[in-house]
């Protein structure tokens, strides 16, 4: 038993579609379970005019009845309100008026290589699907995965730890789910108040200079059982699946698990998490440098995943490019854009981590009904003597 998520749709087309296959029957859902995260994806200082148009919400068109999953594929539709302004340019069917092609690929975007690969003269046939607008559908599907994980006692959260040159200070104590309760109240979704203010100032400064900004977000998952994933083959290692999921998000260029690159510069005695045992706690670790993963499997400690996002390639002062029709030097395409989407990328990161973890639970525990899954998880916890907190 595995879980699969697929999306379809273009940035300015009629809408986006998400299909999630593999969730058990009997999982209780409410509209706010999905739409809460849809709204959170639109948050963040540095967003552009598109977010003033869209009011994202997902319509369930299959797989749920009276608030309970049926066990079959769940279909979600997210309408693009901005399509009303693009209907002629993005209509699925031929239109009477000629529509001008786009021949100005942006450095750092899929525009040029996509046009080459798919034999397209109009770069818009590439950029519409490559756009990060697609992540609205992923967040909708990821919200279903988060609902499934919550039924198993697992929660997934995110926060921003860097925007451009501004870093949030390292925390002296480990985070807990309660620490994320008010994270969305920060305009950049940062848990440190002073760093949050500095990040806002940095966005404003660079936006005035016609620049875009990248940064780093962190996703943490709590309540996981040990042993999700496997060491026996490369494609089953959970750290590899998580890295792929995070780097599949548009503009993400790096991922770290636990202390990641930091431990590469440490001696072994300072890089690993020593193991202890007590009758009250069972096996436990006092540190979590590994980020809850050892040998491609979860350890039971909080899962810690970081994603590094590059500055967005659409700039208000475009970079140099080449007209693909004339091959003459030209400025890259300039369209409505955001200055910074790192806070939103953290919410997308939650969705992708939730998808990987939900799939890991489905692969390990199976179950046609949610009660079957819960029973299997509890039996496993008892077998390994796991005392979940």
How many separate helices? 10
Strand order of the largest sheet: 8-7-9-15-10
The beta-strand count equals 17
Cα distance, first to last residue? 27 Å
Radius of gyration, taken over Cα atoms and rounded to an integer in Å: 22 Å
Please identify the top-level CATH class. Answer: Alpha Beta
CATH topology: Chorismate synthase, AroC fold
* Secondary structure: helix percent: 25-40%
Question: How many domains?
Answer: 1
List segments where confidence is low: pLDDT < 50 over at least 5 consecutive residues: none
Order of SSEs: EEHHEEEEHHHHEEHEHEEEEEEEEHH
CATH superfamily (homologous) name: Chorismate synthase AroC
Largest sheet: 5 strands, antiparallel
Structural class: alpha+beta
Average pLDDT works out at 95
Q: How would you characterize the overall build of this protein?
A:
This protein is of the alpha+beta class and 389 residues long. It has one domain (4-384): Chorismate synthase AroC (Chorismate synthase, AroC fold). The chain has ten helices and 17 strands. The strands form six sheets. The chain has a five-stranded antiparallel sheet. Strand 13 (293-294) and strand 14 form a beta hairpin. Helix 4 packs across helix 5. The protein starts with a strand and ends in a 5-residue tail after the last helix.
């Amino acid at each position: 038993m595995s879980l699969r998520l697929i999306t379809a749709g273009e940035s300015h087309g009629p809408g986006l579609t998400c299909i999630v296959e593999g969730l058990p029957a009997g999982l209780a859902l409410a509209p706010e379970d999905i739409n809460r995260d849809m709204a959170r994806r639109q948050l963040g200082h540095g967003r552009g005019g598109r977010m003033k148009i869209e009011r994202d919400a997902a319509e369930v068109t299959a797989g749920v009845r009276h608030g309970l999953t049926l066990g079959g594929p769940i279909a979600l539709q997210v309408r693009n309100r901005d399509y009303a302004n693009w209907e002629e340019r993005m209509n699925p069917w031929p239109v009477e008026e000629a529509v001008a092609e786009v021949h100005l690929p942006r450095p750092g975007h899929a525009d040029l290589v996509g046009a080459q690969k798919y034999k397209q003269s109009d770069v818009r046939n590439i950029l519409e699907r490559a756009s990060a607008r697609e992540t609205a559908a992923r967040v909708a599907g990821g919200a279903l995965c988060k609902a499934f994980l919550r039924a198993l006692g697992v929660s997934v959260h995110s926060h921003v730890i860097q925007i451009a040159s501004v870093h949030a200070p390292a925390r002296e104590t480990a985070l807990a789910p309660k620490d994320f309760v008010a994270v969305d109240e920060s305009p950049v979704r940062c848990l440190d108040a002073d760093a949050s203010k500095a990040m806002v100032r940095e966005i404003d400064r660079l936006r005035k200079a016609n620049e875009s900004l990248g940064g780093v977000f962190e996703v943490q998952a709590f309540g996981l059982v040990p042993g999700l994933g496997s060491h026996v083959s490369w494609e089953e290692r959970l750290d590899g699946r998580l890295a792929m999921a995070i780097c599949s998000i548009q503009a993400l260029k790096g991922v770290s698990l636990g202390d990641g690159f930091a431990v590469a510069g440490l001696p072994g005695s300072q890089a690993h998490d020593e193991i202890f045992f007590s009758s009250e706690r069972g096996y436990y670790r006092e540190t979590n440098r590994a980020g809850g993963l050892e040998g491609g499997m979860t350890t039971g400690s909080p899962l810690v995943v970081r994603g590094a996002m590059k500055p967005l390639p659409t700039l208000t002062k475009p970079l140099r490019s080449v007209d693909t029709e004339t091959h003459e030097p030209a400025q890259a395409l300039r369209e409505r854009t955001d200055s910074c989407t790192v806070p939103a990328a953290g919410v997308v990161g939650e969705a992708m981590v939730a998808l990987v973890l939900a799939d890991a639970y489905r692969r390990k525990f199976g179950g046609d009904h949610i009660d079957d899954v819960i029973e299997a998880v509890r039996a496993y916890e008892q077998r390994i003597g796991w005392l979940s907190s």
